[in-house]
Amino acid sequence: MATTTEHEPRWLDLEQQRHWRDFLDGAVRLTDALGQQLERDSGLSLSEYEVLVRLSEAPTRTLRMSELADELAQSRSRTTHTIRRMEARGFVERRACKDDGRGVNCTMTDAGSARLEAAAPGHVAAVREHLVDVLSEPQLRALGEAMAVVRAALRARR
Amino acid sequence: MATTTEHEPRWLDLEQQRHWRDFLDGAVRLTDALGQQLERDSGLSLSEYEVLVRLSEAPTRTLRMSELADELAQSRSRTTHTIRRMEARGFVERRACKDDGRGVNCTMTDAGSARLEAAAPGHVAAVREHLVDVLSEPQLRALGEAMAVVRAALRARR
DNA sequence: ATCCGGTAGTTGACATTTCTACTATGCTGG
DNA sequence: CCAGCATAGTAGAAATGTCAACTACCGGAT
Fold this sequence. Notes:
In chain A, 65% of the residues lie in helices and 8% in strands.
């Protein structure tokens, strides 16, 4: 007789487990180190920095709140709070959306732009120091490509 | 004449930038998805789960607070808060360290162990679904090995 | 012995994030 | 038109994380 429907968990073998753990631990340490560098040298958290980067790349330094939330892979609520604080500090401005009465556009101010430019060199140096320069070129590519796959898979589902 | 000492930032080329961004975005989405699965199905956050895993692997289900903090790459303060909450829920116990008057040993209880065992299959399935099974075997290895290098570099300093 | 710099851990204030509920607007079918 | 469902964004409370003291203990040098 065949066994009944399999619901046994398929465990990870030792290699897989090690890879997963190295990933998790490395990711925590890396984002931590980069966040600390930014906070210390530029008074920005890593996600505030990311906000400014996205806005700086947008057509008129402007994005809808929901676009921002989607790009940062954050909840709308978190985005609202973050932007409210950044607005209080003068880095961004919000105004109602012309074409969609529900929408809110978020624009980076000159002060925000200046802060980003001031922060960028140190941040990039840290990304080099802790990531780019410790890996060989093929290693970095492999890392990036693997994560792109993971990212795409996660974006697909809801 | 030679230019004065170089302090120009060495920017990332487009490839490097893309890899770094894919990494960051993928890492956020991945840890997010895994955290949500754990919280929803087992009432544990990812870092609480990690605490239980480390304790389950320790000789007598026991680790010093500082060992725990080091292994999880967390501040001592955060570890104290987390463990206090977990102790209140009955998953761990703390008691003074015999040989070092400053130390505190943290031990996983039977309830903690049971909770971990209940949570593990679903968590492992999620790790497979979002990471292990979406990558080829060499891709996963490359990812793991690259992150091991990053991790080692970050552990060295400080 | 005791002074001193360093380590272990905790605490409480504060900041950020999450969760849930809520308002307002848009859109589609009858 | 308007009913009903979905989307955009916000708000406040609760949970979690960070930061800066602070206590207590260790261990070596004087």
